[in-house]
Sequence to fold (903 residues):
Amino acid sequence: MMKRLVTSSACAAIACAVPAAAQDVAIVNATVAKGDGSEPVAGSRVIVRNGTVSVVGPNAPVPANIPTIDAQGAFVTPGIVAAVTDLGLYDVGAVGASNDKSAGDARFNAALDVAPAINPSSQHVKVSRAGGVTRALVTPSHGNSLFAGQGAVIDLGADANAVMEAKAFQMANLGERGARLSGGSRTAAYVELENALREASAFASGSWEGEEALLTRADAAALVPVINGSQELYVEVERAADIRNVLGLKRTYPKLDLVLVGVSEGWLVASEIAAARVPVIADALDDLPASFEQLGATQSNVGRMAAAGVKVAIGRMSGGTDGHPRSAAQFAGNLVALGKVPGASGLSWGQAFATISSIPAEIAGHGGKFGVLKAGAIGDVVIWDGDPLEVDSVPSRVFIAGIEQPLDNHQSELAKRYLDLDESQLPKAYDW
Amino acid sequence: MMRAKALLMCVGGAFALSACTAAGSGEGSVKSASTANTGDTRTEFLGEDGNVPFPSTYRAYPGADTLIIPTTVFDGAGGRIDNGWVHFRDGKIVAVGGPNTAPPDVANVVDGSDKFVTPGIIDIHSHLGDYPTPSVPAHSDGNEATSPTTPDVWTEHSVWPQDPGFSRAMANGGITSLQILPGSANLMGGRSVTLKNVPSRTVQGMKFPGAPYGFKMACGENPKRVYGGRGRKPSTRMGNFAVNRQTWLDAIAYSENDDAKRDLGKETLVGVLDGDILVHNHCYRADEMALVMDMAKEMGYKVSAFHHAVEAYKIGDLLRENGVCSAIWADWYGFKMESYDGIPQNAAYLQREGACVVIHSDDENSIQRLNQEAAKAQAAGARMGVNISDADVISWITLNAAKAMGIDDMTGSLEPGKMADVVLWNGDPLSVYSRPEKVWVDGALLYDANDPKRRPVSDFELGQPGAGDVK
Fold:
């Protein structure tokens, strides 16, 4: 006998304060977008067993005796993956003591590792979770070097274990920022890079110069997995010429596992990026010459790169004023909108959703593991109250690894308190 | 030489001047009644040439007698007409009708089937031109952060009309009018300028004819941080208020002193006290907004709108009673301490209380999506049971903005006689999937998605990668 749950009942805050063990759940009568680039399919099903997606499709058999949710036609998707973000690294951007994004006064750079700084209870984690974000590639910001340090893959579950993969990638900048941090010019940045990789090679082979070296021991050690290709090197770069230079690094360092980040002028060199098989995490909607390395910026950048065969995710939505991670779906929706603009290059709905789900997961080396609804993937599942890419939609229920998540946070509590302004009996402070 | 120093107090040109009162005269000055013929409504001292300084030279570009039919019309004033039409000619809205009203016989008919028409979108808070792209230090012209009060500076003297951001705001956001403000480093940042979003070689060629000036003020963290960090007053919120109040008292004394020599800053402050210049006050916290409204009562001026106002939802009743608009983001929060309590329901909760809501950008990217931001704010309210019609939501980015900027008798809604500032959207403007298809400013077609040449390209962009590209 099937146990029916009510679609609209989100996990109550207290009930979910300590998340249950991985659940079995069958979601039926859903419009399922798998996140793999395919278009949504109505009347479909998603079955999660022991926290893992077991089967997806209109004819997926529903096991007996597992909780079943009738989605009543609602969209069901994999959780959104926030690619290159600062989730969990700060509470208030401008409150320095609460902000672990960068460490400009540190003695180290490449060795910096965001993992111990991640705060799973951060309000931004909670707000993003309520926005359907279930995993994130968290990066440090640049402090004193073209190397910012090592990012992590995290989940946004309401539990203590946020970090799924620490030291998942090294973040570097070889554009204007990296040039400034290296002494004032791209010329210096490339010497810094070359020296760092050489010293890391020496460290790996046991011939490190020790106190003669420019890198600290910790930084040299941290770059070893970069040069041997076991850790991805994310490189922030915008200008076409800089993109070409980064692609060219593979000639000298063939093992580098490169990912381009930012890439406003990628459309000008899209075929070269595609030929190099280097994936991109792009700013979705940059269309202004914000700097002299972004003169060619256009919202059609992502669509043009995708059409040229580049694997493109969208990302770099950080807190504050430049689009929260929960805005990822809105930004992806804008790429769909371009399809109706003459001369512009957009994406199909399915392609657009993949830029915020399966593609960032693949880029992070977790293809098929999350960001997609297919057998064997982690059970990160979101049920939406409308079209996920539309601005008026939010999740009604969120599961991470099969565990239903609380969707409350500081904002939702304020919204409840101020649903009216009635203080006739007691001040608002008693309304909680 | 006799220096004309008339402080106009009223709307209109020379015809109306006999009804004006004048104040703040000095040096045996005269009240010039013969030269203020620009249609400006602003408080102004006239120049040696007898004109208001830096007068608008904007003239509407030619436009066709145009009928958009059939289409869905959001009139900006809370009205919606399905199967409707919009007629404009000679730069003005002639008529708006529905399925039961006979449209006029016009040669230039635009098919609006499956499309939507709104008034031109208005951004009440922009830094296009004074913080233009490319965002290099040489372009940083929005904060005269050398004194906590700089009421003497005028934003128009900082605006770079070649900012490529103006074109993006038009093409992607349907922006036809916008207010450019000084930044928020100072308690009193200076005069704003209201522009038509029309490419021009000069800022005067963009100035909205007849728009009153605004006056930028800022409370909270920014002024006390900027000046406290330099070891000077104000370094606290109480310091902020002390400096403000003394500055107002000095301005009142100035206005009562016929012998005072001209003082640019005080002229602006007196313009505020006289109600000719509208106060736009950057302020985040509810408690601080309440204090500012009391300060305004004490000193005898009015706040037109609080900007950013992330906690406005906590005092919607007070804001309604004081008749102050809140110009807000849909959901920005958490980037500074005073933005920590931002919630996506801010706009809807204000509307629930009957307070005036304006959605603003303060951002060269977000200005391209004010329609989406408004839709997000609407949906956040609906989820809490606060339902607001699509037509009312459109007023958040049209007529309400115009009201708070003092230009609502000229634009902001599709009413006969108003400026034909019109956007034809290729779908529901409250959907993420819709974009402007055509944008008219004073009846002139200045953007057409179907015509690559009907797209402004700034001088800066010529010869650069992607010049004239879709953006």
